[in-house]
Amino acid sequence: MAAAATTGPGFLSPTGVEIAFVLVGLATLGAALVTVTTKQLVHAALWLVVALGGIAVEYLLLTAEFIAWVQVLIYLGSVVVLLLFGLMLTKAPIGRSPDADSGNRWIALGVAVVAAVSLVWVVVDAFRTTWIDLDGPAQGSTKVSGEILFQHWVLPFEALSVLLLAALIGAIVLSRRNESTDASEASDTSDKGQR
User: Fold this and answer.
1) I want to staple 68 with a disulfide (CB 3.0 to 4.6 A). Which of 52, 59, 108, 119 is the partner?
2) Cα–Cα nearest to 33, from 55, 48, 53
C-alpha cells in the first residue's frame, strides 16, 4: 500500500493560532458591542480600549507586527486619550448619561446594519480577484505597509490628523466658553444678592 501524502492542517483541524484568533475575535466583538450599548460614556471609552487592543492582538496573530504596534501607538495611545480628554474637557457626566440615551435606537441599529452590510460587500467586491504574492515580502511588513501608506494613502492620513486636531481644539473652545458663561452667571447672581 502506498502511504498517503500528508499535508498541513486542513479546514476541520485548526491550529492553535487559528483557535486563538477566533477567541480573541469573539472577545473583541463583545467589547465592541458593550462599547456601543453602554449608557456610561467613560465606560464606553474604556471598552473601546479593550476592543482596539483586541484588534492589535489579531494583527499580531496574523504576523503583522508593524501594523499591531501602529494600532497600539496611534489608536490606543492617541485616539483613546484624545477621546478621554474630550470627555473631560466637555465635562461629560461620569455616571449614567440620560442625554446620551435616545429613542432612536431601532433607527440607529438599522443604519448600523446597512452600513456593515455595505462595508462587507464593498470589501469583498474590491478584493475578490486579488492574489497575494507569497514569494514577495510579507504583507504586514514595514516595507510593504510604508510603500502603501506613503504612495496611496498620504492625503487621507493627513486629513485624519487635521480632523483629530480640529476635534481637540473644538473641545477646548467649548469648555472655555462654558467656563466663561458659568463665571458670568455667578457674578450676575452675586451682584443681585448684594442689591
Assistant:
1) 59
2) 48
Separation CA 59–CA 53 (nearest Å): 10
Sign of CA dihedral 116, 44, 74, 54: negative
Crossing angle (nearest 10°) for helices 154-194 and 142-152 = 70
Which range (5-9, 85-89, 135-139, 172-176) has the least confidence? 5-9
Question: CB–CB of 173/181 below 8 Å?
Answer: no
Contact 59, 145 (CB under 8 A): no
Residue 66 CB contacts under 8 Å (≥ 6 apart), including other chains = 140, 141, 142, 145
Q: Do 45 and 87 contact (CB within 8 A), yes or no?
A: yes
Count of alpha carbons within 13 Å of 154, Cβ hemisphere only? Answer: 5
Distances (CA, A) of 69 to 16, 51, 141, 181: 22, 15, 12, 43
As a whole number of angstroms, the distance between CA 51 and CA 161 comes to 21
91-105: pLDDT as tens digits: 666 666 666 666 777
Q: How far apart are CA 100 and CA 92, in angstroms?
A: 10
